[in-house]
Amino acid sequence: MSVALGTTRPLPVRTTPVGDPGNLLASLPATTPYAWIRNGDGLVGWGEAARVAVPPGPGRFAWARQWLATVLGDAQVDDAVRHPGSGPVAFGSFTFDENAHGSVLVVPRAVLTRRGGRAWLTTIGEAPVKTFSPITDPGRVSYGDGSLSAPEWERVVARAARRIREGELEKVVLARDLVATAERPIDVRLLLMRLARRYPECYTFSVAGLVGATPELLIRRTGQEIESLVLAGTTPRGSDPADDFARGAALFASPKDRHEHECAIASVRETLAPLCSSLTTPDEPELLVLPNVQHLASHVTGRLADGASVLDVVAAMHPTAAVGGTPTRTAIEVIRELEGMDRAGYAGPVGWIDANGDGEWGIALRSGLVQGRRARLFAGGGIMGDSDPAAELAEAQAKFRVMQYALEG
Ligand SMILES: C=C(O[C@H]1C=CC=C(C(=O)O)[C@@H]1O)C(=O)O
Q1: Which of 33, 153, 280, 336 has the fewest CB atoms lying closer than 10 Å?
Q2: For residue 361, what are the domain limits?
Q3: Is 135 contained in some domain?
Q4: Is residue 136 included in any domain, yes or no?
């Protein structure tokens, strides 16, 4: 753990209302930019008042909650706003695999928020001095295979589909990685600006080098109310409006995709039901149309039965069948065996939490791990018994386009 302002001293936190800050992302300095933005609203943070590497293992969420209770609970808070997301806030990213290192929680020294028509600034200690530097372009970007080449990955998909047909499991989500190398260091702010502009409906995020724009809301907690947007079942966009419409209609009618979606909804329903006094899941999914793909989507709402924090709910839900599979344990074993890569934070929970346990966490899809001139990009899809490896590869390519656009414009 590192607590920049001293481990023994409670964090002195101050939240004050501010005028409309305009584009939140424009406030970010080049170093340690934290972000969670949708349709222009959200939070950006910079500086680090406290940071911790969460140890791997089955108890990692409980450990993180304990750490947050100590650091945020002990804070000396002067909060003139008293709204979800005011007062001290931590950003976090958890690895997909509970046994992997790399999960992190960070309490920024400054967080600028706009939510529900109000804006405020939270600072910890003296407001950190921002050294503004112009946003830089990374220049030409080239791509190389990550752990598996495209044909190797197709063979892995075929093996997984066979094991599903043989009855070992019902669904597994397989992913691959690409390594992007730029001419010059990658300025995360440029990626965030491009993602937020092109994918306003998605959650554009940046936490400790993990950057992306995910359409999938794992969980939002506002008091007792919770919401989730479950996605599974995908088709690339069409070449013209008629083709686009036909693809959407085919997706909606596809037994393979509807079954894939039902697995994801069932896993969310099963984990949320015991935590909730009421829970609503739609009978049928809707189509979510994004610039690169169309998804089957279900909006889930509920009311928590007791005082579970958003991180408690994240702990119960991760990994949903939208990123793991069904049954969960078998799917995780198959992913470890077949993918041949460390997913790091990809497909793991990413988001923020405040001292009252409110917050928003997404599933870190359409994302990349950025370091210097390099970025590891990730994309995958749900594999069923009748999956066609070439179609799954095309779907993953369409999903990679999000981060390729962020890097290249
Ligand atoms: C695994 C990914 O997407 C998941 C979320 C939405 C739709 C999915 C699908 O249709 O396969 C995946 O379950 C990814 O974007 O890398």
Answers
A1: 280
A2: 2-130+142-408
A3: no
A4: no
